[in-house]
Design goal:
about 210 residues, single chain, 2 domains, elongated
């Protein structure tokens, strides 16, 4: 095994130690998806303790982006060894936001996903919470396949939008919910996927409000 390989193996060893240390800490999920009814880790929930652990054992994490890829470089500050975790960069296409805002939104989510992967953080699957539910949950329709290839950050935005629309409808403000959807100037596939995240009563109320 050459010196470079030995250095990189030491990074893996330290990363394993860091993961073990993080598992001993009590982390609180501050993110809440009101519509799907689950909590999730926001970046700030676990990044600060992770960086503290990294500092203790001699690791540093550096996030970098290109047009095609997001990368997290984990470097051993003692011997210079490095491993890289990558993810396809993805894109955001929400109208009403300029290009820099869309890029910033994707970078924020990518940073979170890279660190979740690096530290093997296990949390609720957002898609599990929005499929196959009955009653007040999302209704799966014949068109539900449309929009399934949307980036995860767009889906999370649309789930939050669905939650806001339901709250407005529940408070007798269906027209406001309709106006809220239109103000975001969604693409056709985004609007169809949004509809699958609403219960039938909410969709019916919003549809009826268009004629008032």
């Amino acid at each position: 095994m050459n010196e470079v390989s030995k250095a990189n193996m030491e990074v893996y060893r330290k990363l394993a130690v860091a993961r073990a240390k993080l598992r001993t800490q009590v982390l609180k999920k501050s993110g809440l998806n009101k519509f799907a009814g689950y909590q999730y880790f926001e970046l700030g929930d676990f990044l600060h303790p992770t960086l503290q652990i990294f500092d203790e054992i001699g690791l540093v994490g550096i996030v970098s982006f290109t047009k095609e890829e997001a990368s997290l470089y984990i470097v051993d500050v003692d011997n210079g060894g490095m491993i890289t975790i990558t993810s396809p960069f993805g894109s955001a296409a929400l109208k009403g936001c300029h290009e820099v805002q869309n890029i910033g939104a994707v970078e924020t989510y990518q940073r979170r996903y890279l660190w979740v992967t690096a530290m093997e953080i296990v949390e609720h699957d957002a898609l599990d919470a929005t499929t196959g539910r009955k009653g007040d949950g999302p209704i799966i329709t014949p068109k539900s396949g449309i929009g399934e290839d949307l980036p995860n950050d767009i889906k999370e935005f649309l789930m939050e939008l669905a939650s806001s629309c339901k709250e407005l409808v529940d408070n007798g403000k269906a027209k406001s919910a309709y106006d809220l959807i239109k103000s975001n100037a969604l693409e056709a596939d985004q609007e169809v996927w949004l509809s699958t995240q609403m219960d039938s009563a909410t969709r019916a109320a919003i549809k009826k409000s268009k004629s008032t």
